[in-house]
Design brief:
Two copies of one chain form a homodimer. Chain A is of the alpha/beta class. Chain A has one domain: Spore Coat Polysaccharide Biosynthesis Protein SpsA, Chain A. The first copy, chain A, has eleven helices and nine strands. In chain A, strands 1, 2, 3, 4, 5, 6, 7, 8 and 9 form a nine-stranded mixed beta sheet that branches. In chain A, helix 1 links the parallel strand 1 and strand 2. In chain A, helix 9 runs antiparallel to helix 10. Chain A starts with 15 loop residues before the first strand and ends with a helix. The interface between A and B is large, with 56 and 56 residues. Chains A, B: It holds the Pfam family RGP. Chains A, B: It is found in: Golgi apparatus. Chains A, B: Keywords: Cell wall biogenesis/degradation, Glycoprotein, Golgi apparatus, Isomerase.
């Protein structure tokens, strides 16, 4: 006799991995069970590799601790941060799937204004599977969404859109503020549900947060490097920002789209602003030079794959940001190591090149 | 004895004019009475000047018909369109106030999700009086709004923002679609209330709709020319688009911000798509060349006032778009006439120059 109520197969079930960096037991997954249970998880354990991380029953997962990372990458493991959630990008590298969703373990299921639990992953998938509109702004937001379209005056030649590489989701409750803002506004909570998804226009940078983020690994994966943060590094909490700047410059060059907006998750806990300030303070003044660097960065035509773009960007980082601090020379080297490790594990440097070229030509 | 309940004085009561182009009695103002009654209206009567337009009692207004426009501008009146709502820009020119709000006479008061009537004008004023953020994208939308701020990774040097020149409001019910989309989706209604205001990033063009629009006349007024449309012209329904492209290029050059999003009005009536198609069809293919032209247009440093920018832009229009159709030569000439007429009526070409320079330097 057949199961009377078989679970419906969720979107992209076998084409998406959920990457979670953590230092604790993953009880938060209980709340996500209805939405995550049928997907494969990649857990990247940060900190002490001898600690055991408990994962609730019924989830399908693989877990990597520092010993695993060292064993798999050998000397190239030095490009993966330690004692920092930047280590999550190792999960992007070992995944064999086309799509990645990454979420922090202090993020819970949020409710929409009608009180319904939001299936964040489903919304990310919708964002990734529909085109983006980086070349012209649509005032009614995502024109591919039901009940919306391109408005009067939107060029018809641009209505096919561009492939979407990144879907950046937002946070209710604790907003993603820097340490100074946390210190100044300790009680501020985000309660505004903005019912929109929009494409960040070509040529515009944005602060990409890694808390609730999905992307197309084949289109942009090799650029999703979260840099050198945490243990032994002069900076923290800029891992996702670094990735976001690089990703956006490369997406703009390759004609790919980056979306932001829905879905929301419920961010449960503000991190300690004093600890954050210590991690961030160099970033706070470095970013005043880093951002103009990325705003003016251009990539030559020959850069037809994400890997080629990323290697070129690493050269420019060394050349232009090396003078800001020697850290950027180390980071530029790590960017190269990251690409080498990515290609070794994925064995796709040629394959990705031609895929990228197709993607960009669309 | 004092009035027991004096009406509160609304924001910018003596610094803002409401400009309404119309061909019919303005019964729609009844619905707006609580929000508009204390402001001054400038009504631009389109079409037959012998027709009498009835304005509900109690409104303070001045009304201009075609005879008035011809009398006031003399031979320069040929830059003001006839039999097209583009004539509204005459109202911008004769206003003596710092701010303008313009609204179509088929736009009613919309309700927010809680069922409350939306004071569209008040929201526009809030948008105009708070800074814009054109140089970097803030993922939580308007950082100056209550309950929001700049997110982690937003450069501190950019948090002062830029002066806001334009506030572009949206429409519930009938969306602002072009004729082909109207024909394909005759029953589509916009029911999504997106609770956001955002700055359109520097370098990105957008389709500016004139239905529900506010701007700072001192900062950008001379660029708000709605072009040559309607009677005797090969094109219609591109008046606001034309203004939007010019305005955005000039705002980007002068370091001014353009916001879009809230407030919504209730757009009551879809215009006839067959009539619209006739007006639009040349625009539909011309815009494929016009938009790349504006996307790549750059203004020299010497253009330090809106007027100088606009005259320079008119030269580039003639040079680059004249080949598309002779209409653009005529339009380029009208752009110059418009600026001459503006300066004549406002007697502020020098004054505006220095104000602009201050605005841009902020």
């Amino acid at each position: 006799m057949a199961d009377p109520s078989p679970k419906p197969v969720p979107l992209l079930k076998d084409e998406l991995d959920i990457v979670i960096p953590t230092i604790r037991n993953l009880d938060f997954l209980e709340m996500w069970r209805p939405f995550f249970e049928q997907y494969h998880l990649i857990i990247v354990q940060d900190g002490d590799p001898n600690k055991t991380i408990k994962v609730p029953e019924g989830f399908d997962y693989e877990l990597y601790n520092r010993n695993d990372i060292n064993r798999i990458l050998g000397p190239k493991a030095n490009c993966i941060s330690f004692k920092d959630s930047a280590c999550r990008c190792f999960g992007y590298m070992v995944s064999k799937k086309k799509y990645i969703y990454t979420i922090d373990d202090d993020c819970f299921v949020a409710k929409d204004p009608s009180g319904k639990n939001i299936n964040a992953l489903e919304q990310h998938i919708k964002n990734l599977l529909s085109p983006a509109t980086p070349f012209f702004f649509n005032t009614l937001y995502d024109p591919y969404r039901e009940g919306a379209d391109f408005v009067r005056g939107y060029p018809f030649s641009l209505r096919e859109g561009a492939p979407t590489a990144v879907s950046h989701g937002l946070w209710l409750n604790i907003p993603d503020y820097d340490a100074p803002t946390q210190l100044v506004k300790p009680r501020e909570r985000n309660t505004r549900y903005v019912d929109a998804v929009l494409t960040i226009p070509k040529g515009t940078l944005f602060p990409m947060c890694g808390m609730n983020l999905a992307f197309d690994r084949e289109l942009i994966g090799p650029a999703m490097y979260f840099g050198l943060m945490g243990d032994g590094q002069p900076i923290g909490r800029y891992d996702d920002m670094w990735a976001g700047w690089c990703v956006k410059v490369i997406c703009d060059h390759l004609g790919l789209g980056v979306k932001t907006g829905l879905p929301y998750i419920w961010h449960s806990k503000a991190s300690n602003p004093f600890v954050n300030l210590k991690k961030e303070y160099k970033g706070i003044f470095w970013q005043e030079e880093i951002i103009p660097f990325f705003q003016s960065a251009t990539l030559p035509k020959e850069c037809t794959s994400v890997q080629k773009c990323y290697i070129e960007l690493s050269k420019q980082v060394k050349e232009k940001l090396g003078a800001v601090d020697p850290y950027f020379n180390k980071l530029a080297d790590a960017m190269v190591t990251w690409i080498e490790a990515w290609d070794e594990l994925n064995n796709t440097s040629e394959q990705t090149t031609s895929k990228q070229a197709n993607g960009a030509a669309k």
